[in-house]
Design a protein that fits this description.
Family: To bacterial alkanal monooxygenase alpha and beta chains.
Helix content: 40-55%
CATH topology: TIM Barrel
Number of strands: 10
Order of helices and strands: EHEHEEHEHHHEHEHEHHHEHEH
Largest sheet: 10 strands, parallel
Keywords: Oxidoreductase
Radius of gyration: 20 Å
CATH class: Alpha Beta
GO molecular function: oxidoreductase activity
Number of domains: 1
Strand content: 5-15%
Structural class: alpha/beta
InterPro entries: Bact_Lucif_Oxidored, CmoO-like, Luciferase-like_dom, Luciferase-like_sf
Number of helices: 13
Shape: globular
Distance between the termini: 12 Å
Enzyme class: oxidoreductase
């Protein structure tokens, strides 16, 4: 089983965004040391509590301080950008970090209406053109000249970045399948059935552009601690932040556990909490391992990308470390 990380650079209550970005660097270095497969950074804009708005900047900085782990955005919000420029940016990164670069591609706005209109004059129209944008990007990533301008997306790295489609729907799964691309399903932010969507991806997959077989990963929200009880305590902060984001409560950053518990206890309806909590994996390393193995069997995936919202940075690192030791040590001895 492969483990990877999706980092959204969460900002703790009262913390400066600069420190959240520094912690992202430290997390990536630990993941590299522990044997995680990938470290991806999300792209969000003006979203309270998150510092990751420019993953391309962070990934170059992180790449210089890591050795093996694959790096990529999770995801480039393609409707905002010209494919040619995206290819140039990630070709440059791939030239500096040979055979270590992915490009996750998404069509979400990554923020509110004001973000859409500030970053793009025609985001919705471009979002509808997502298949054409993906095809144009693949053209440049395969070192081909533009039929119109004759341009190539220089520099041309020895190993091209690997594009992935990210999504939570059949539409995204079918887009990945059409172009023969690997697919990352965001289970942590979807109420849809991964089994059905991943089945659509595999059965519709068209092998070309070097990708001969379907490849999928599942992104899941994980809170891991030494015991189930401790993990349940820590999960209050992630639950509170998710509820605040959905309700627009105006809080900034991850609340400490005690404040998060108080916030949740004062909610008039427990259904929102229950809906969010059922999408999270919460428990000890052994508990989480068993849950991941069940999901691996049910959804036929060999890789899980973990996203973890824990208010203490030390306990956040420990969450990833405990699970890595549980999974990798068992596999090494078998």
């Amino acid at each position: 089983m492969k483990l990877s990380i999706l980092d959204q650079s969460p900002i703790r209550m009262g913390q400066e965004p600069q420190q959240a970005l520094v912690e992202s660097v430290e997390l990536a270095k630990l993941a590299d040391k522990l044997g995680y497969t990938r470290y991806w950074m999300s792209e969000h804009h003006d979203l309270k509590g998150l510092a990751s708005s420019a993953p391309e900047v962070m990934l170059s900085y992180i790449g210089a301080q890591t050795k093996k782990i694959r790096l990529g955005p999770g995801a480039v919000l393609l409707p905002y950008y010209k494919p040619y420029k995206v290819a140039e940016v990630y070709n440059t990164l791939a030239a500096l970090l040979p055979d270590r670069v992915d490009i996750g591609l998404g069509r979400a706005p990554g923020g509110g209406t004001d973000v859409m209109t500030t970053l793009s004059d025609n985001f919705l129209q471009q979002a509808f053109k997502m298949p054409a944008l993906v095809e144009e990007l693949l053209h440049f990533l395969n070192y081909k000249k533009s039929a119109v301008t004759g341009l190539k997306a220089a520099p041309l790295p020895a190993v091209s970045p690997v594009p992935w489609i990210l999504g939570t729907s059949k539409k995204s799964a079918l887009l990945a399948a059409k172009y023969g691309l690997p697919y990352a399903f965001g289970q942590f932010m979807s109420n849809k059935d991964p089994e059905e969507i991943l089945h659509e991806y595999r059965t519709s997959f068209q092998s070309h552009r070097g990708q001969q077989h379907p490849e999928a990963l599942l992104t899941v929200s994980v809170i891991c601690a030494e015991t189930d009880e401790k993990a349940k305590e820590l999960a209050h902060s992630a639950l509170a932040w998710s509820i605040q984001s959905e309700r627009g409560d105006g809080k900034v950053g991850l609340l400490p556990v005690d404040e998060a518990k108080q916030y949740i206890d004062e909610l008039p309806d427990d259904q929102v909490k229950a809906d969010i909590e059922k999408k999270m994996l919460i428990g000890s390393p052994t508990t989480i391992k068993h849950k991941l193995k069940s999901m691996q069997e049910a959804y036929q995936v060999d890789e899980f990308m973990l996203v973890s919202f824990i208010p203490s940075f030390e306990e956040r690192l420990q969450s990833y470390e405990l699970l890595a030791h549980e999974i990798f040590t068992e596999e090494a001895s078998s």
